[in-house]
Amino acid sequence: MSKVVKFGGSSLADAEQFKKVADIIHADPERVYVVPSAPGKRFKDDTKVTDLLYQCYERTITGEDFAKAFAPVRERYDEIIKDLNLDISLDDEFVKIGQDFRNGANRDYAASRGEYLNGILLANYLGYEFVDAAKGIFFDHKGNFDADITNACLGAILEKTPKAVIPGFYGALPDGTIKTFSRGGSDFTGSVVAKAVGASLYENWTDVSGFLVADPRIVENPAGIEVITYSELRELSYMGAGVLHEDAIFPVRSANIPINIKNTNAPEDAGTLIVPTADNDTKYLITGIAGKKDFSVISIEKDRMNSEKGFMRRMLQVLENHEVFPEHMPTGIDTVSVVVNTKELGKGEEREKLVRRLKDVLRPDHFEIIDGLALIAVVGRGMRAKKGTATRVFAALSHADINIRMIDQGSSELNIIVGIDEKDFEKAIKVIYDMFILSEQ
Ligand code: ADP
Ligand code: ASP
Ligand code: MG
Predict the structure, then answer these.
(1) DSSP assignment of 146-189
(2) Which of 341, 264, 297 is nearest to 18 (CA)?
(3) Residues with CB under 6 A from ligand 1
(4) In Å, what is the CA distance from 49 to each residue of 62, 114, 206, 277, 336?
(5) What CA–CA distance (Å, rounded) separates 315 from 368?
(6) 20 to 30 Å CA-CA from 230: which of 70, 239, 305, 427?
């Protein structure tokens, strides 16, 4: 049986972290497929190599000399090589990257070099084989991840490679051009590799001891989650719980492979186990709280809206034509509020065009767009079995004098979503946490 182990940026930020990673890998002979991220932050205000690479790309396309723009990236790798005493040089790779930049390589290519170079170093350090993700992870000509081809090709390569390092975050388009997943995408690569090799477990090593009930940057020392289902995790990661990329569960879910989130800096901690199904009899009524800012509400009022044939269809059509995709759509008899990502509304003229089109097509009595909305999801399989979750969420918010602008509960009873003013975001998460976790401890 093999395990796939993915290490995030902070787990591989410098030589000290590389040593911890090697100790973890060598402690279990089943840890044979390793997916690294690019070196992340070494301290709070440090810059991740991926961000350095994006900066380097912007600087070179505006005419700056590559060597100068690339110097901060180069330093990071050279320092790791020196501190680990590795018998390897990346100089030829740096030259090749410079040539590729000059030949017009794209922004994704630039970003992908973070994982690529780190993969080469880690493979060398572990004595594992380096397998370039561009050789086994593929996108179709539209730029969508191609699960079938990837699974077949990567599976075939790794079948012949008993111990390999496969860099995270990128793959190749049919013509060989490099393309990355969205930010945090190495989690997705780990999941893809786990499926391709039929792993018994996908271990995702990061800088926290598993999934916590709330974001530790908001709630001080939050309780940990021992077991969480794929569906709960999906809700939480979609709503901004940053631990795992929101798509990372799909490949392993289809293959029934559990994910274990573990802490590189505290490897003995059990972490969080992510499983297909679990008992509803949970320790706390809720499993987790997460949230995101930067939403807007398009609020539309029109008398007898609900009896006007095709009203919703026409509204959705206009939104779709403008590439605006509703997140939530609570309705009243004569009102509808459409919650969307603010950035999808565009700015200036683009936004005005959308507003004009909606008004022309719908002829509302009242129309308004309110920006500055934050959404908070309270998620838990346990709430199906017990009553009163919503009441307690509302009570917590109302005691804290937080105005609720929107409420939505999925029919699966797995989550309750509330929309509040952005300025109340952190406070809202804290009071909900206190209500469900602190008061039960
Ligand atoms: P990596 O670089 O290892 O991929 P990430 O930074 O992507 O790590 O994810 C781990 C971070 O996610 C934690 O350091 C923490 O700040 C943040 N985070 C946000 N929400 C949660 C949560 N609910 N539980 C644990 N960590 C969370
Ligand atoms: N290095 C990439 C990022 O910073 C991918 C990852 O870390 O998963 O987004
Ligand atoms: Mg991450």
Answers:
(1) -HHHHHHHHHHHHHT-SSEE--SSEEE-TTS-EEE-STTTHHHH
(2) 264
(3) 8-11, 37, 40, 184, 206-208, 211-212, 214-217, 241-243, 288
(4) 20, 6, 16, 37, 44
(5) 14
(6) 427
| Residue to probe by mutation, ligand 1, list 51, 243, 376, most atoms within 8 Å of CB | 243
Cβ proximity of 272 and 211 under 8 Å: yes
DSSP 383: G
Residue 160: CB atoms within 10 A of its CB come to: 8
For residues 15 and 80, the answer to whether their CB atoms sit within 8 Å is yes
In DSSP terms, which residues pair with 297 in a beta bridge?
A: 339, 370
Mean pLDDT by 10 residues, the chain (441 residues): 97 98 98 98 97 97 94 98 97 97 96 98 98 98 97 98 98 97 98 98 96 95 94 91 91 95 97 91 90 96 93 96 94 93 96 97 96 96 85 95 90 89 98 92 76
